[in-house]
Amino acid sequence: MDDTDTGTDPEDFQGSGEDGPAKGASSSPSRTSEPGSETSAAEGAYWRENIRLLTGLMTIWFFCSYGAGILFRDFLDQFSLGGYPLGFWFAQQGSIYIFIALICLYVVRMKQLERKYDLDD
Hints:
3 helices, 121 residues, mainly alpha, two-stranded antiparallel ribbon
């Protein structure tokens, strides 16, 4: 018989002889083992802070765009900014400026989080 390519993966036969792992068995440790627990806990804390940051920033943007531009427009129109009613300004430009500022804040804060959890490059 000749040992030509049979379509099997060489990694399936990691162990030599009968002492090796069974075909298809994984020899790598699972993520739930003791050493992986520290990494999982750090990753979990990182993602909790990331989601909390995103939720806060998106809440601010919602209130500035929808709240100031639509819900509270009549109240804000009694004030002016640059010669335009404030509610109108938020609806047309203000929410966009605030969104850009929130993106910049997100970038700065994420760099801090990545350094905190040692995930930066």
